[in-house]
Amino acid sequence: MDTLRSMSKSMKIEGNPFGSSHQRNQIFLRFVAFFLLIGLAYRFIITDSTVSPVPDVRTSPGSPPADPSGLTAVAQAPASADSPGNLTNASHNASTKCDIFTGNWVADPTGPVYTNVSCRHIQEHQNCLKNGRPDANYLLWRWKPRDCDLPRFDPELFLDRMSNKWLAFVGDSISRNHVQSLICILSQVEEVEEMYHDKEYRSKIWRFPSHNFTLSVIWSPFLLKAETFENTEGVSFSDIQLHLDELDHQWTDQYINFDYVVISGGKWFLKTSIFHENNTITGCHYCQGKNNLTELGYQYSYRKALRLVLNFVAQPNRKAQVLFRTTTPDHFENGEWNSGGFCNRTMPFNESQGEMKSEDESMRSIELEEFRKIQKGSNSDIGLLDTTSMSLLRPDGHPGPYRYPNPFAGLKNKDEHNQNQNQIQVQNDCLHWCLPGPIDSWNDLMVEVMLNREVYR
């Protein structure tokens, strides 16, 4: 009995289901070997029956060389089952390219990538929400081409590809509007430094220091040499003197520095202008018979200007990749900017609703004709950035009366009739775009044309 108690006590104190230390080690090693055998068997079974979910990304000997522009992967979404891996989603299939400039605006509840609070680079006239615009539905749409998907602008990837590059925008205040949109998108990744501005803050240069990427906008509303005489509200006090045979040195003198250039003309050619060629006054536009000058019209001066510009950038010694952006239609209703015109719509048009004014149709026709001529006559790297149709469908995207803070604060709000009359008393902006706003989608198209420039030339 004492012996049994002694054995029982020993078991309670030293009892262990795996026995001694040497025994525990042997059992552990057997378990390890057992699980290794099971793992190897499972691997052999799975390898024979499934395909790896990770694609082979190695470059084959026959693969084309990398894009020397450094923009190959910008905004490139995963390829769909219908399109080859080396095409973006804006390409419908291997043989048919999608027209990214034709489509509709579709609802997008995610909204813009920035806000009027998160971006500090919005000009006051375009900061619609800050100025009191009461609706925000205009922010919840994205551009959808008719037969394909347009990749979204990836700002981080764009900055990586633009390292050590210079992108310049040349044109009027719409170009400045476009640049501000681009900066607002990019500033969500890296804040930009302003390096220069002219006296009127119309031309500016910025730099993204981490990428050594330079971005600039050059004020040149005619792209030609011109003497303009206007006050800060855009009211002329003397006729514009426009030289149809000389480009504006404000941008041509800097052109050698640029890697990418977005050029555009437009509405300024509708202003009263006196035309100069070969140091001689040859005619005018809208000069109402002044000094017996010949009325040649804005079509004459616009065609002359575009032909001179496109011939300049098409010269074989030019390194810059050029995008020519088409005209921007306005949405003034019941008048113009200086005669009570307004734009109070809150929804986009659908594809069948938008109708361009005759001036916009004429200018667009000239643009396409001159662009096609330069395409056929040279091997230059010029692409078309056709934002006209998509912009036409967005009458809701302008500041309207909200180009200034609280525009109706000093007006009495009586009945509905008087409220409508009040719109005539407040100057509206139905040409520029709210930020954030529809103009942000111009950048999606811009990057896509840069990517597939052979398709869109």
TrEMBL record:
Its main location: membrane. It comes from the Eukaryota. Residues 97-149 form the Trichome birefringence-like N-terminal domain. Residues 150-448 form the Trichome birefringence-like C-terminal domain. It holds the Pfam family PC-Esterase. InterPro entries: TBL, TBL_C, TBL_N. It is found in: Membrane. Residues 53-90 are annotated as: Disordered. Belongs to the PC-esterase family. TBL subfamily. This is Uncharacterized protein. It comes from Eutrema salsugineum.
